[in-house]
Amino acid sequence: MNFKEEFEKLVATGKITRAQIEPLVQLATHGYCSHRSWGFGKVTAVDAVLGRVVIDFQSKKGHGMDLSFAASSLTAIPKDHILARKSADIAGLRQMAALHHIDLIRVVLQSHGGRATADQIQQVLVPDVIADDYKKWWEVAKREMKTNGHFLVPSKKTDVIVLQEAETTLQDRLLSDFRAAKGLKAKLTVTHELVKSAHDLSDKKAAAAEVLPVLNADIASHLRTQQPLALEAIFARDDLRHGTGAAAIEGEPTAKGVWSQNPRLNQLLEEIAAAKHRRALLSFQESSPIWFEAVIGIVNNVSAKLCHECVQVLAQGGHLERVRDALGRLISQHQASSELLLWIAKERSDTFADILGPEVFRAMITAMERDAFNEKKSNRLRDFILGDMELIGDLVGSADIDVIKDLTRALQLSPSFDDMDKRSLLARIVKAHPAVQSLISGEQHIKQDTALIVSWASLGRRKIEYEEMVKVQIPANSKDIAIARSYGDLRENHEYKAAKETQKVLMRRKSELEDQLGRARGTDFANPKTDVVGIATTVTVRDSAGLRETYTLLGAWDGDPDRGILSYLTPLAQALMGRAAGETVDFEMGDTKKRFHIESIVGATPA
User: Fold this and answer.
1) Residue 70 and residue 93 share a domain
2) Does residue 563 lie within any of the structural domains?
3) What is the share, in percent, of the chain residues with pLDDT greater than 90?
4) Which residues are within 8 A (CB) of 201 and not within 5 positions of it... i.e. 6 or more apart?
5) Cα gap 319→292, rounded to integer Å
6) % helix, strand, coil for the chain, step of 5
7) Are 538 and 601 in contact (CB under 8 A)?
8) Shared-domain flag, residues 452 and 303
9) CB 67 within 8 Å of CB 21
10) Which residue of 52, 304, 435, 579 is 20 to 30 Å from 186, comparing CA positions?
11) Could you read off the pLDDT of 516-535 as tens digits, one per residue?
């Protein structure tokens, strides 16, 4: 059908205007369109006689429109457009994505007028064309584009990727960008691209011969005024030389020249890229005879990330013990910064196990209170403490109860947390040390209903167990930890890890015993009342089958079911207590249901 002739007839009858002929011809011949509200659509019918066009939109199938309205509200999409191809041949595009990355990117860019950002490309391809691991796919495609010559790939993700007809080699493009760069910082951006693409350069020696002298001149001019930038440029220059196989130029500036300017170490490190921190520290180590003192001197004045790099370099330089001592002093004297403590909290490695304890948490509270007067300080440490559910347990789990009580009071009085956050943190302390519950609840004395009624004999046994643990087992465990630590690398030290696990078990049991002994009330069970079942009574019951059982109810730690002796805290004892002879008791535990008739109650004494 000759659509143009048909539309000319409609112009003659006044149904459409002449200006609408071309848009309608494109709709009819292309077969695809887009609407600003309904999105992409496929033209399924164009009827010049009825003056209507029918389109399948994703949300409106078989939608009919007047030709005049369609001409003004729809934009025709050619058959080679990425949206049209997704509709007509999605399988072909998926195969192209798997085998020919560049061809697929070309289709997308041509569909966008030769220019599109990385985000625009992703939006049109994911998930219809590429459903899995787009990030990996994109990295491969980007590398291919950079070496293709028809694509201009910017360093910034938000800038547009350009498809150009004339081919430009990767080396020509990067060198052109280098020549156009204004200032050393801009030149470094291009240098990094040259380093990444060194293996794809067509003439590595020529590229190095042009770039290296320029970098050296700029580095020399920045040595006195901008040491951080100069140091990064030296690293980039050395990387480019390594990647291109170029030789060093006599008299060129080196990292030692930067450090000879005596810059403030922490300030310089904070101003360079985080990825270069370790390299900068190692170059400082090579250049300064007092590098240890200088580096250990800044760990309390840098970010948590930089603190990590400083400690790693110091440890690898053979100074691990001195680092431990320095960190321990900062913590014990409550001088550690919030960033240093944040690193320690995040790290929590066995390497520094001997300084990880309740004093770290106390130092954290002090640091946050100190930071409250400094508006520039962030709340990163506080947020981490609240977010890491295991932190407090790890720090206070092995501490003595008196230390925990003192720490609990400090937390309760601290202005660094609001009431809701304090309750959350205090609950974590209670989980590790139940004995502090009464302090947290504000109780001055243990309530009667929380006391434990125990026999003098069982109380004596518990006290002996506690003494054994405190005087023998815990000191022996501490020796085991010290011996295991002497074996070396704690990360692979299984003896050390086993000893630390034993320490956790011992400290948990110690806390339980302290809580129990604090609530225990010894008695000889003399002269019990026998009008109802109670502690120190023997009760005879008959079940619904007529079987008789006799139970003696004694103290919390006196239970011996094989001899018919029940702790008064057991579910059965609790069900019987307070009931008189002649009463019927229903008892349920799990899936077991029983009915007992109480026949007699007499006084009892412990065996």
Assistant:
1) no
2) yes
3) 66
4) 170, 171, 174, 194, 207, 244
5) 8
6) 60, 15, 30
7) yes
8) no
9) no
10) 304
11) 888 899 998 988 899 999 99
Of 96-105, 245-254, 444-453, 597-606, the least confident:
444-453
Among the listed residues 354, 503, 389, the one whose alpha carbon sits nearest the alpha carbon of residue 344: 354
For residue 30, the domain's CATH number is: 2.30.30
Domain total in the chain: 5
Of 132, 153, 168, the last residue of a domain is: 168
CATH number at residue 506: 1.10.287.180
What does the DSSP assignment read for 430-451? HHH-GGGHHHHTT-SS--GGG-
Assess if residue 204 is contained within a domain: no
Task: Pick the last residue of a domain from 465, 496, 521.
Answer: 521
pLDDT, tens digit, for every residue of 306-340? 999 999 999 999 999 999 999 999 999 989 999 99
Placement of tokens 């760990």 in the chain: 299
210: its two tokens: 């042009």
> pLDDT tier at 446 (50, 70, 90 boundaries)?
very low
Residue 207 lies in a domain: no
30 and 143 in a single domain? The answer is no
Q: Is 335 inside a domain boundary?
A: yes
Q: Structural domain of residue 151, as residue ranges?
A: 84-168
d(C-alpha 424, C-alpha 429), whole Å? 9
User: What does the pLDDT read at residue 40?
Assistant: 95
The C-alpha angle with vertex 274 and arms to 269 and 275, in degrees rounded to 5, equals 120
Whether residues 227 and 363 fall in one domain: yes
Q: Cα separations (Å) of 177 from 168, 173, 207, 432, 474?
A: 12, 6, 12, 61, 68
Tell me the pLDDT tens digit for each residue of 6-35: 999 999 999 999 999 999 999 999 999 999
Q: How many CA within 13 A on the CB side of residue 243?
A: 25
Amino acid code (one letter) for 119: D
- Please, what's the b/e burial string for 19-53 (b: 16 or more CB within 10 A of its CB; e: otherwise)? ebbebbbbbbebbbbebeebebbbbeebebeebeb
> Following DSSP, what letter does each residue of 362-416 receive, concatenated?
HHHHHHHHHHTT-TT--SHHHHHHHH-TTHHHHHHTTS-HHHHHHHHHHHHH-TT
| Integer angstrom CA distances of residue 293 from 178, 290, 558 | 40, 6, 62
Strand order in the sheet with 565-567: 565-567, 548-554, 537-543, 592-603, 584-589
Which tokens go with 103? 């061809």
d(CA 46, CA 65) in angstroms, rounded, equals: 10
CA distance 594 to 457: 33
For residues 553 and 53, give the distance between their C-alpha atoms in angstroms, rounded to a whole number: 92
> Do residues 525 and 455 touch, judged by C-beta distance below 8 A?
yes
Average of per-residue pLDDT values in the chain = 90
**Cα dihedral value 58, 64, 65, 70, nearest 10:** 40
| Contact (CB, 8 A) for 97 and 125 | yes
As a whole number of Å, the CA-based R_g of the chain is 40
Shared domain check, 266 and 163: no
When pLDDT is cut at 50, 70 and 90, the band that residue 375 belongs to is low
Query: Same domain, yes or no, for 73 and 88?
Result: no
